């Protein structure tokens, strides 16, 4: 049996060994007191916008400040996989402010008293990311992020000098799921991709908190508005639905699928007049959801009252007419709200990208004239925000 003096000596020796060990492993800085979450992994998709094509990764970072002082995100760097020699994107200053909102604020309004880059204690900010990776590039397996924060000291004002801290390697998995190639949801013609994919579109910035969870079902949603031969969405005034070129347009199944949800009976709106009360039950108006692949659902919303031609659990064939374009729900004019999601819900799901096989990009709607516009061929792409698109090449036979 060992004596007490021998035991004491062994403890002293052990302590001396620990103290003599290199201290590099104990030098790690705490870093910023934040939680960072990516709610849905990005999927690479080719987008056609502003007369150009780009392959993009679209996702959000939710940053919660667990410190007792405001934290300002000064710079965000994004890298592909483990290669930190060539960043895909570096964002700072005004460009970073334009991508951020603090939850509960006025959605990044310029009237806010502080920069959108500053996150108050206990608050969450959302960074909306749109990362270009090159048209022919193979999507990375992961995206890695380096974030530089500045923390205000006691009594510091918004413009005061702050101590910096860094989150060196926040990793986001890139989904390798294929992007679905779809037929048109309508017959051919010229259409405006209203609020289509872009980092600043209303659909893109829509985040819904329902039943204790947050969702972004409209990440790639498009409000399709038909453009007539007069170069406008309507003729002879806007007060009648029938004066809108798209009203009553046959709506088609974009691929084979099963009907998983239907709602009909929501009355048509008067154009330019919203319904008096918008709820979770009537916001989409009359709608259909089709399951078109495992974990892939397509929503057709704001359909014409009484026009739905399918029943729950029907199996429909690609190109089948399933309803007509209307003006029901939260809509101020006849259009088709179209989105693809990973779940069987208009609102409680995550938006995923989709593409069309071939179309002509006629440029931004703000510049469109019937006799003066670009006409650029696109293949296997999704139209971008407010682009005017000619689908004559894909017109259904």
Descriptive account of the structure:
This protein has 397 residues and is mainly β. It has 2 domains: 34-173, Sandwich (Immunoglobulin-like), CATH 2.60.40; 180-394, Glucose Permease (Domain IIA) (Distorted Sandwich), CATH 2.70.70.10. Helix content is 6%, strand content 38%. The chain contains 2 helices and 25 strands. The protein has a 16-stranded mixed sheet that branches. Strands 4, 5, 7, 9 and 10 form a 5-stranded antiparallel sheet that branches. Strands 13-14 form a two-stranded antiparallel ribbon. A hairpin with an 8-residue loop joins strand 4 and strand 5 (89-92). The longest helix has 17 residues, at 4-20. The protein is globular.
| Percent in helix | under 10%
Instruction: Please state the second-level CATH architecture of the largest domain.
Output: Distorted Sandwich
Amino- and carboxy-terminal Cα gap: 95 Å
- The total beta strand count reads 25
Shape: globular
Mean of residue pLDDT values: 90
- Class inferred from helices and paired strands: mainly beta
Short description:
The protein is mainly beta and 397 residues long.
Which terms summarize this structure?
397 residues; 38% strand; Glucose Permease (Domain IIA); Immunoglobulin-like
